[in-house]
Design goal:
With 675 residues, the protein is of the alpha+beta class. It has three domains: 15-157 and 234-319 and 329-338, Rossmann fold; 160-226 and 554-590 and 593-675, no CATH class; 346-532, Galactose-binding domain-like (Jelly Rolls, Sandwich). The protein is 15% helix and 37% strand. It has eleven helices and 31 strands. Helix 2 crosses helix 3. The protein is globular.
């Protein structure tokens, strides 16, 4: 059987429709851009929908063009609406993934299917929000939706979305609240909506809520998070799914969860990249993602019997042992093809925790290890959601390992391949009524560098489920399991495993109010590793090709992009400061003459010995201009806490020219429930 392959090589030109209105049943109109192949003028063709809030004319215009113009040259109509309240669309957005948003997606699909240029078959794809929206649309089962391709998506809005993180509140998830704060107040383009732009913009400025306030009002997994979580209704996904993600993404687990639970035709691809399309970002190796997607669309939107379902269930890139670096263009490794998932070619290796490290034999007797990590532990872990930008990947774990309880395995004399979910089973006690347990799995080189392979975080108060608080009684033993992120890794000879356990992971997880000491009973604690054993008879993985994309969108660079990331430790105040600044630069789009710029800054502060000193500040500035039209927005969100409350301090400002047209501020106090 031939491998997954790109579509026809005789690429055709395409036509761009900059703006069409798509009416919703409640009277709101969504603005969409179309890429149409020439054949759509004389015959109907299948369509591909990407449904996101990220502004089609400026915010992600380069990405949209790179992908959708390419699909259009291969005979597909592509539709990219802005969600309500964003870009040039009417209405307001008051939170993420609300039922109204999902209803909008269904209505857009129905609208597309009714167009003269559409054959009635619609596929839906997207990364991040767009991937989640694709899966949510599949749950609602609109008849015209025939297949989906979620990339870097989540299936559980509580467990691994931007709000809550595997049992701990993510400090960097708080930053996402700042992101949405700034995103929702950007103006529509008067070249599209006409004189109504000012009223639409003012409505956004006057009515945009502080998203983070709503998220902190629901600190347990209640109906707010259940709604829209695909994992609640896997059986309702009845269209074929091609799931794609990267090991360095914040959501590497989704591919495996979909393969394990979806009954419809499902295939998965897991590469090395971060939170990016695998043809447009790193770390590499990149793949011909568009060609892969085209094969999927051809099978399910054109009914082309191309053998795609005869391919292995999972194509996974096993990252080789490598030096830890926060910025890597590519990761060494190899692709493997796994025929089915879960796979009989993956077995569980059990390694027991003992005073001498990791051992195949359990510890005899009572042997305990106590952990109380400094509040800054975790600064080497990189970004929760890396987009292959400014030194976002994990660095050498040595500084964090030094303040953790580390359990080393023996030096390997042959390679060890891991694919799947590591689990850490522990019997613990805690000296406080709350505590975190953080598990990091590292690859340690002969020279001593420690590379992060995977991690997991468990809030002990959520050990029995994330929908209720379980009391932690000081000194009382608890049996707990820490689930680490899925991984694909090949540990080379001469290297060894390290399991590092700590009680902090700043700023990945917000510190609890008390510095707790967690005691681990080694005799009842062990690590389970998913070991891959591919036989020599297994079909080799197909050639996934080189990245493809449409020619770049014509533009002029006015100010090039730049960024920085650095840590500062003040030994006098014992403050640890992490600063991340990203200047996306300024560009002018040739077709629309729109000038667009954006820059943001994140600051994470914490003081040694004081878990209540955590502070996150997020700032975002956006500017838009054409001729004498000049608009600018600023947003700032600061998050702090004390023993009982989170404190939110937010501000937004809108400028038309040099004039302030709107300024709003918030001060909110939310009780700490489980965090």
């Amino acid at each position: 059987m031939e491998p997954l392959r790109p579509g026809p090589s005789d690429a055709l030109p395409y036509r761009v429709v900059e703006h069409v209105w798509i009416p919703m049943s409640d009277g709101v109109r969504l603005s969409a851009q179309l890429w149409l192949p020439p054949r759509a003028e004389r015959e109907s063709v299948p369509a591909i929908l990407e449904f996101i809030p990220y502004r089609k004319r400026d915010g992600v215009a380069f990405r949209d063009h790179a992908n959708h113009a390419w699909f259009a040259t291969h005979g597909y109509a592509c539709v990219r609406p802005d969600m309500r309240g964003h870009g040039d669309s009417e209405g307001l957005m008051t939170d993420e993934y609300l039922p109204r948003e999902q209803e909008d997606a269904v209505e857009v699909i129905e609208w597309i299917a009714d167009q003269h240029w559409c054959s009635g078959s619609v596929g839906m794809m997207g990364i991040s929000w767009g991937g989640i929206a694709s899966l949510q649309a599949a749950l609602r089962q609109p008849p015209a939706l025939k297949a989906v391709i979620p990339v870097g998506a989540s299936v559980d809005r509580y467990y691994d979305d931007g709000g809550y993180l595997v049992g701990g509140y993510p400090g960097q998830g708080l930053g996402w609240g700042g992101v949405m704060f700034g995103y929702c107040i950007r103006p529509p383009d008067p070249a599209v909506v006409g004189d109504e732009w000012r009223a639409m913009w003012r409505a956004r400025l006057d009515n945009t809520p502080m998203f983070l306030k709503s998220w902190l009002e629901h600190q347990l997994r209640d109906e707010t998070w259940v709604q829209g979580s695909v994992c609640e209704e896997y059986d309702r996904i009845q269209v074929p799914v091609l799931a794609v993600s990267g090991w360095n993404d914040c959501w590497p687990n989704t591919v495996f969860r979909l393969l394990e639970n979806v009954n419809a035709p499902c295939r998965g691809v897991s590469g090395a990249w971060g939170h990016v399309y695998p043809n447009l970002g790193g770390p590499g190796p990149g793949i011909d993602f568009l060609g892969l997607a085209l094969t999927w669309w051809d099978r399910w939107l054109r009914d082309d019997d191309n053998g795609v379902m005869d391919e292995p269930s999972l194509l996974a890139y096993l990252q080789d042992s490598h030096s830890p670096t926060p910025m890597a263009s590519a990761r060494p490794g190899r692709w493997v093809a796994v025929s089915t998932w879960p796979s009989p070619e993956v077995s569980v290796m059990t390694l027991h925790l003992g005073p001498n490290g990791l051992d195949e034999t359990a510890t005899i007797g009572i042997t305990k290890v106590e952990i109380c990590s400094p509040v800054w532990t975790g600064l080497t872990s990189g970004e929760y959601m890396p987009i292959a930008g400014v030194r976002e990947l994990p660095g050498d774990q040595g500084p964090d390992d030094a303040v953790s309880a580390c359990f080393n395995g023996p030096v390997l004399n042959q390679e060890l391949e891991l694919l799947g979910t590591p689990l850490v089973h522990l019997r613990v006690t805690c000296d406080q009524d709350e505590g975190l347990v953080v598990a990091r799995l590292c690859d340690v080189s002969p020279e001593g560098s420690s590379t992060l392979m995977s991690y997991g975080i468990l809030n002990l108060r959520l050990r029995d489920g994330r929908d209720h608080v379980a009391e932690v009684h000081p000194g009382e033993a608890m049996e707990v399991t820490v689930r680490l992120n899925d991984l694909g890794w090949r540990i080379l000879p001469g290297h060894h495993l390290r399991l590092a356990l700590s009680t902090q992971m700043w700023p990945m997880a917000w510190p609890l109010a008390k510095e707790a000491t967690v005691s681990i009973d080694l005799a009842a604690s062990y690590l389970e590793l998913p070991v891959l054993h591919l036989s020599s008879s297994v079909t080799p993985p197909p050639d996934l090709g080189e990245p493809q994309a449409a020619d770049p969108l014509p533009h002029r660079v006015i100010r090039p992009a730049s960024g920085s990331r650095h840590q500062v430790h003040n030994p006098l105040s014992e403050e640890y400061l992490l600063e991340v600044e990203v200047d996306a630069g300024e560009v002018e789009f040739e077709a629309t003459r729109l000038r667009y710029s954006s820059n943001s800054a994140q600051r994470y502060r914490i003081i040694e010995g004081n878990p209540l000193s955590g502070c996150i500040e997020y700032r975002a500035d956006f500017a838009f201009a054409r001729d004498d039209w000049q608009v600018r927005t600023e947003s700032v969100l600061v998050v702090t806490c004390d023993a009982t409350q989170f404190h939110l301090d937010g501000r937004i400002t809108g400028y038309e020219g040099s004039k302030v047209v709107c300024e709003r501020s918030w001060v909110e106090h939310l009780p700490r429930i489980a965090y």
